[in-house]
Structure formats: C-alpha cells, structure tokens
Here is the input.
Amino acid sequence: MTIRKKVTILGSGSAGLTAAIYAARADLEPLVVQGLQAGGQLTITSDVENFPGFPNGIQGPQLMEEMLKQAERFGTQFIYDNAESVELSQRPFVVRTSSNEILTDTLIICTGASAQLLGLDSESKLMGHGVSACATCDGFFFKDKAVYVVGGGDTAMEESIFLTSFASSVTIIHRRDSFRASKIMVERARSNPKIHWLLNTVVEEILDVSQGSVSGIRVRNVRTREVQDLPADGVFVAIGHQPNTELFVGQLDLDEAGYLITDGVKTKIAGVYAAGDVQDPLYRQAITAAGTGCMAAQEARWFLLAHEEAERESNSTQIPQAAAKHAH
Ligand code: NDP
Here is the structure.
C-alpha cells in the first residue's frame, strides 16, 4: 500500500513518540513506523525514577504505553513494522516497510541505539531483575549491594564510579588487562576505594535464573581458565551501544561509531531530522531523547510551513503571468 504523509517518524521510543505528540498536536497527522522493538529501550528497564512528572517512579513499559496513548489521542497513525529501506535523494522521501511504501515530505529518524549485551541466556532472563545496561537508570536500586560492571571502556569506568554512590562494592570485570577507557577515567576508578578489579576475566553465566533474580556470577579467568562463582546482587553490562543506523549508510553522515551526525536535530538533508539515541552517544537518557524528539517535530513543522509559503508565493507570481498570457 502507498501512504502519503507530511511527517513520518521512524522509531517509537521516547524520541519518536514525543516527536509524534508534537507533530500530531500541530495537525500534521504523523505516521510512526514503530519498529519491531516497539517502545524502544525503556521497554527493557523496570522502574524509571528520573523521568520528571512521576514522583513515585513508573515502570519503563508503562511510561512508553502512556506516551503511545498520548500520541494516538491527537491522531498519530502507527505501523507495527520495521523500515526496510529509505530513499532520501529527493522529496518526497520514500520509506519502505515489508508491506508499505511511504512517501513523506519530512522524515524524523528516532531509530535509537541498542545496548550491546553479552548474549547469555541468563542475562536476557534476568534483565530488569538485577541485570541492567544503564547505571544512571538503575543504580539507585542497588543501595548497599555488591555489584559487578562488565567492560573496559569509558562507560564501564563512568558507571562504576557512579555506582559507588549507592553500592557497597563495585567490581569491574574486563576481558583484558589493558583498557579502552581513557587514562584519566581508569585512574579515577583506580583511586576509588570501593572499586575492585577482575581482569582477564569473562562472565560465563549470571545466577540464578531459577530464583528470578541475581544472586551471583560465574566467571572464567581467560589465562588460568579457572572458573568460579561469586556472590553478586547486580550486574551492569557496559560493553558499548550500537546505534541503529544501517538504513542510512551512504545517505547521511555517520561518525566513527555509527551515530548520525546532526546540527542540533538537523541532518545534512533538509527535511530529514534525527532525535534521541541514534544521534546521541553521550547523554542517552529518555528525557533527552524526548527533548530532541520535540525539537525535531518543531523543525519539521517549520520546514513544511516555509515550503507551503514558498509554494504560495510562486503560485501568486505565476497567476498574473498566466492571466497576462490570456490577455494577449
Ligand atoms: P567502548 O567500545 O569504548 O568499550 C567497550 C568495552 O567493552 C571494551 O573494553 C570492550 O573490551 C568491552 N567489550 C565489548 N564487547 C564485549 C564482550 N562481548 N564481552 C566482554 N567485554 C566486551 O564503549 P563505551 O560504551 O565504553 O564507550 C563508547 C564511546 O563513548 C567511547 O568513545 C567513549 O570514550 C565514550 N564515552 C565517554 C565518556 C566520557 O568521556 N565521560 C563516558 C562514556 C562513554 P575490549 O577493550 O577488549 O574490546
């Protein structure tokens, strides 16, 4: 089916849904291509306590459900499918999903980023029950607990330092004995007495799926091959994020890590905007994603207004010419 739209939004995390709320309230009847992980990263967290307006916290999936209802209420249309290809070389831009071709005057890209995970079955089963990929989101729940942080990059260092404000002990598990993290961050972590180190070590299993919460961690030293079970209350996986930008390779500018390069929320193509984690390697918060989603919807509206105005002006200068022609 071919669908014609003024505003199309790719992704339905907090950036995409906020863009939808703003575009819908501006009467632009936006279309959201939800993606197969509808609701984005918040759907894999449990309590969200740092989103303003919820003094008692809210469950991540519920927050996304509320945002979706709010976007729906003002006339957003949704397609539960992944975008399979986009053509941005001319307007209207084209988005193809498995069963639809969407022609759109503006495009807001909110395809997000996915936290890299270890790929263990126990990790996915205990996600939100002691396993987390975001210390800023979940650190608060680990007051006086023993936690482990997996990774050797800046995120692992930063999250470990952050977690020392809550946890009784933080142990960094890294598969090598040298670090990708900057020297200053490693030094900062090293000088923190609450931080311990397990180097040349990989996580084999997170325990205990049968209990439905984290009680320990099975690790293997890659040099000695020794395997041991250690007691743990929480495991933070901090091994990087992957922005979801494969669709735009060759059409938009990406940085070395694959994030979309934007000026504010503008991409290099007029009428194409990007908001949320897909263009943000730094803040990566639901509230910052929502903020940029709002900015992108405003930009799209201004773009459409400017074009409508330009079209009106060119029509009004053409009419007298046409009339003049008829007069002869
Ligand atoms: P990085 O890619 O820099 O680091 C990922 C880390 O995870 C590496 O140590 C890597 O190990 C390890 N890792 C990757 N895959 C696995 C796996 N399967 N099992 C075990 N370990 C694994 O990602 P970050 O998120 O740390 O940083 C991303 C970017 O953001 C960087 O450019 C960073 O500098 C920046 N950043 C900056 C901050 C700041 O300046 N305050 C804060 C946070 C991030 P190995 O080294 O062996 O490959």
About this structure: The CA atoms of residues 251 and 266 lie 14 Å apart. The chain is about 30% helix and 25% strand.
